Fold this sequence. Notes:
The protein has helices spanning 39-51, 66-74, 99-113, 133-146, 159-167, 190-197, 248-265, 269-279, 293-298, 307-324; strands spanning 4-5, 12-13, 16-19, 56-58, 82-87, 118-123, 149-155, 174-178, 200-204, 283-288. The chain is α/β, with parallel strands linked by helices.
Amino acid sequence: xxxxxxxxxxxxxxxxxxxxxxxxxxxxxxxxxxxxxxxxxxxxxxxxxxxxxxxxxxxxxxxxxxxxxxxxxxxxxxxxxxxxxxxxxxxxxxxxxxxxxxxxxxxxxxxxxxxxxxxxxxxxxxxxxxxxxxxxxxxxxxxxxxxxxxxxxxxxxxxxxxxxxxxxxxxxxxxxxxxxxxxxxxxxxxxxxxxxxxxxxxxxxxxxxxxxxxxxxxxxxxxxxxxxxxxxxxxxxxxxxxxxxxxxxxxxxxxxxxxxxxxxxxxxxxxxxxxxxxxxxxxxxxxxxxxxxxxxxxxxxxxxxxxxxxxxxxxxxxxxxxxxxxxxxxxxxxxxxx
Length: 338
């Protein structure tokens, strides 16, 4: 796999990054998005990823048990890996992080990950540091000078958030955001601004939690925890908190059309969806989760996306983009992005 540099750094990463939120040591997440994944399965996934040449792995202090599992998995084979984590919404601290909180969160993450440095340390949401922006930026620079982090980035930052962060002296090399064929809100403002500033985009949920797998063709087939976002009516599940009507008609019309196109060409929907994302300007890597080693293998099979195909895919999903509007936050009615 051809690698790309993140921002203006020397971090060279594969187009596929393994998202480790499912590495929960067998416990189901409280929002019921993902089932419990045994440690042995997580190990098989990582072993397969390494065999495929993937060198990029992403976790966070907020991901249930994930950092501890990742630490066990990479002990003794950390060299050559690009390891990323995030602070915010941790067990002991949710938002309002101070410089001291960042230092303590990083120390705890490094201990769980069994390493003395992180390649990329990310602010999980802008709300995490709104109250103490300048001092947090200074602390990130200090931790970089100490060698405990090589670079830092942000996650879920909108255009205004990025402007404030940069004005405070921040030098993020990445912005990790929700981006896929069914969630294209970042295209309105954030993506063009990030490209202008040389900030690499890392796309999470590139298959929209399995909706772009072709497996789910109607709402009732989708697991409850994955129906709590703005694609679905807020009445679809008690776990929802956005209060909107959703756009299920547009959603499943688009999924059906995408599936038809893929079936006619004998290519998988995940392959088309991931390949389309990687073709978009500013994208450096897509962050994919996996329930099995076979899924990781399947997600490295890319297909050529012609200009015509790119246009067709955008046309099919444009009604969803319009319905969701400029709010890039798929879970809250009032966006947590600026």
